[in-house]
Amino acid sequence: MEFITVVFHLLLHTVGLCSGGSTSQYVRKAEPAIDIPLELFPQPSGYNAPEQVHITQGDLVGRGVIISWVTPVERHPNVVTYWEDGKQDEKHKTHSITTSYRYYNYSSGYIHHATIKKLNYDTLYFYELGKQNVTRRFSFTTPPKVGPDVPYTFGIMGDLGQTYASKQTLDHYVSNPKGQAVLMVGDLSYADHYPFHDNRRWDSWGRFIEKSAAYQPWIWTAGNHELDFAPEIEEYTPFKPYMHRYHVPYRASQSTSPLWYSIKRASAYIIVLSSYSAYGKYTPQYKWLKQELPKVNRAETPWLIVLVHSPWYNSNNYHFMEGESMRVMYEPWLVQNKVDLVLAGHVHSYERSERISNVQYNITDGLSTPIKDASAPVYITIGDGGNIEGMADSFIDPQPSYSAYREASFGHATLEIKNRTHAYYTWHRNQDSDVVAADSIWFYNRYWYPNEESS
Ligand SMILES: *[C@@H]1O[C@H](CO)[C@@H](O)[C@H](O)[C@H]1NC(C)=O
Ligand SMILES: *[C@@H]1O[C@H](CO)[C@@H](O)[C@H](O)[C@H]1NC(C)=O
Ligand SMILES: *[C@@H]1O[C@H](CO)[C@@H](O)[C@H](O)[C@H]1NC(C)=O
Ligand SMILES: *[C@@H]1O[C@H](CO)[C@@H](O)[C@H](O)[C@H]1NC(C)=O
Ligand SMILES: [Fe+2]
């Protein structure tokens, strides 16, 4: 009898999922989850100095950049001056679209968004904002032309906030010279943590991330902390501060909302979804995603990556299964289209899944367990930027078989795409030296090389 049980277990292990997942025993040094005081995010000096400078991709393919900034006192100057490295005598100017908003008793500064287009690929550009002695200069490098074997490295961060731990995470990312653009999986400033959603915390966050976001594009995803829906203070418009401050090139992918869109960058096709917008059948997001996925040409962009805030596979007690209804809606499409990676935040911990799917269940068949699936994405939860809400340190025990690695720590990751088949992924705790990789794996492309990976 005992022998039979052993054989049965062996069989389970070979046919089914191997329960090789590990829960890290790393013990993070305890520190309080408190925001850095507002005074420590000073405005740059000079009258009406441009601040909160950040850039994102401004078109479908990476030849466009949206440059955003705030002028606190006056609407003007509302222009960005830019030039290619080595061509100072060929300066160009683009005017911004300027907006501002009120939130309860807060009034924003002038928020500028200037879209510059038709830049050369893989080229260093400088840009200047402001005037005379309050001019500020920044730079960025455009991505290489879209193509199947173009190496490119993305940084990945989520749920960042503006605590001392957030600063560790961001400083680590900035000192990691590899990252060329950031995939931000939502929950930015956590201004909504404060009474009346004190929107000065949106300003301080803009100043906080400038050291990275002014120099390389951050690709934005909306999280629940972007909602700022507060009927108790008559703030009824979801995403009001976020949508005024963070513009994205959604029209370039025929989206009708900045909350879901896609871009191509180097060898990656990135699809951004909104956990907090309607996604059921017949909704705008559903219709858009349905027609978007077949457009992806893996011979042009081999790496298909989806960003969404609320995770679809996660084994933490915090926010458990909040992403489930969206998973049920969209997971079959992602598996059919061999998505490589799904990156999510929301849970303030780190977790990486096996390649698994759970698409058979139809309420009558009882097939509700995830199974190993070579066509399925790996799901990464990286809501571990280090915000004011603290750590999600309570994992479901025992570790479910779909979970490959999990750890209650803060940090960031990088994804180094090498060519159409190989990408090297590393996750870095923010209390280690920034070169230490606590989790690393070679990802194999699902379209070109769907072999099994091992970490
Ligand atoms: C800029 O110049 C003005 C006068 O031209 C001066 O009042 C101001 O202090 C200067 N600001 C800075 C930051 O140097
Ligand atoms: C907004 O209202 C809060 C609460 O009444 C108050 O503490 C704060 O000073 C006000 N801010 C402004 C800019 O009026
Ligand atoms: C549900 O799945 C079972 C088992 O695969 C299948 O026999 C049945 O037809 C399915 N029901 C529907 C409504 O698709
Ligand atoms: C793709 O990159 C991997 C990792 O650097 C390398 O081992 C492999 O040979 C490359 N493939 C081709 C076709 O160059
Ligand atoms: Fe969240």
UniProtKB/TrEMBL annotation:
This enzyme's EC code(s): 3.1.3.2
Group of enzyme by EC: hydrolase
Example of a GO MF term: metal ion binding
Domain Purple acid phosphatase C-terminal: start-end pairs: 376-435
Keywords for the protein's UniProt record, in alphabetical order: Glycoprotein, Hydrolase, Iron, Metal-binding, Signal, Zinc
Signal peptide bounds: 1-20
The keyword Glycoprotein is assigned to this record: yes
The Purple acid phosphatase N-terminal domain, residue ranges: 50-142
Claim: Glycoprotein is one of the keywords in the record: yes
InterPro entries found in the cross-reference section: Calcineurin-like_PHP (IPR004843), Metallo-depent_PP-like (IPR029052), MPP_PAP (IPR041792), PAPs-like (IPR039331), PAPs_C (IPR025733), PAPs_N (IPR015914), Purple_acid_Pase-like_N (IPR008963)
Reactions this protein catalyses: a phosphate monoester + H2O = an alcohol + phosphate
Cofactor(s) listed in the protein's UniProt record: Fe cation; Cu(2+); Mn(2+); Zn(2+)
Superkingdom to which the source organism belongs: Eukaryota
Domain Calcineurin-like phosphoesterase residues, every copy: 153-350
Family: Belongs to the metallophosphoesterase superfamily. Purple acid phosphatase family.
Record protein name field: Purple acid phosphatase
Species per Swiss-Prot/TrEMBL record: Ilex paraguariensis
